[in-house]
Write a structure and sequence with these properties.
Order of helices and strands: HEEHHHHHHHHHHHH
Shape: globular
Radius of gyration: 24 Å
Strand content: under 5%
Structural class: mainly alpha
Number of strands: 2
Number of domains: 1
Strand order of the largest sheet: 1-2
CATH topology: MetI-like fold
Distance between the termini: 40 Å
């Protein structure tokens, strides 16, 4: 009986495990090898390069500049997105007198349904210096100095403009995530807090956040990983250039240009390996420092 059960389990797992091995594990191990080589990506001439790629990476100012942009995104995106998502989720679940709350939930979630590329193209038109909606609105309220300001063409604003788009698209998804978590919290907790004289702000911090912490923790990890990516957003909104003076360049976009524009696949693979290690370390650190005792209800 057990043998038949094991055969059934193996038959079901064989195909997905085989595909995972073929398309995930083998490329990972191949990248681990190519990171120590000098390879153009197309040539059959693959030469072992030792640790030279990593030494070069340590001295590469463009890499550190790109990594600093990922670091800025890591500091900005999680608190801003989670803060806004929690605010709207609490407003649309525990808030009183909010008309059309169901409509606003759908409207806020709608950007998440759209493709990242589509959203990036849409916001590129919003930021357009002459026909863009943003400059038109600023000019309409009297800020004529921004009438033709190139938001994506100025090194001081290009990366902030990209991050603003990311916030706009992401808030709705995490709002829905938090709404689902808040709706599962028993109403008795809020009624008891009201009897004790707690206002909405006190209930949010002392009832909602502790009972919702596991969901918030998951959101922190997801957003931390997303902050280390941003490839599609930066590529589309800067036409693959990383912005003026590469002011919006992130590690994935620099990796891509190094591999496919400069033909340095070995060096780009070393860069990808370092990024993988950083993301894994970031995930472990996030899990460790956000761990709290689980509250059951």
């Amino acid at each position: 009986m057990d043998r038949g059960k094991n055969r059934l389990i193996v038959s079901f797992l064989a195909l997905p495990v085989g595909l995972y091995t073929l398309f995930v594990l083998i490329p990972y191990f191949s990248a681990l090898i190519f990171a120590f080589t000098r390879w153009s990506g197309l040539s059959q001439n693959i030469r072992f390069n030792g640790a030279n790629n990593f030494i070069k990476l340590y001295r590469d100012e463009k890499f550190w500049s790109a990594l600093s942009h990922n670091g800025i995104a890591l500091l900005i995106l999680p608190p801003v997105i989670i803060g806004l998502a929690l605010f709207f989720a609490f407003l649309f679940t525990q808030g009183k007198g909010v008309a059309f709350s169901r409509f606003f939930r759908v409207a806020f979630f709608f950007p998440q349904v759209m493709s990242v590329v589509v959203v990036a193209v849409l916001w590129s038109f919003i930021y357009h210096p002459t026909i863009g909606l943003l400059n038109a609105l600023l000019g309409a309220v009297g800020l004529t100095q921004f009438a033709s300001f190139p938001w994506l063409g100025d090194r001081g604003t290009v990366f902030g403009s990209v991050l603003a788009m990311v916030v706009w698209q992401s808030v709705g998804f995490y709002m829905v995530l938090f709404v689902a978590g808040m709706q599962s919290i028993p109403v008795d907790y809020y009624e008891a807090a009201k009897i004790d004289g707690a206002d909405s702000w006190t209930m949010f911090w002392n009832v909602t956040v502790p009972l919702l912490w596991d969901t918030i923790r998951t959101a922190i990890i997801f957003l931390a990983i997303a902050a280390m990516d941003l490839f599609a957003q930066v590529t589309v909104m800067t036409n693959g250039t990383g912005g003026p003076s590469r002011a919006a360049d992130v590690v994935p976009t620099y990796l891509y240009s190094t591999a496919f524009s400069d033909g340095q696949f070995g060096y780009a693979t070393a860069m990808g390996l370092v990024l993988l290690i950083l993301v894994l370390a970031l995930s472990i650190i996030s899990l460790r420092f956000t761990a709290r005792e689980a509250l059951e209800y």
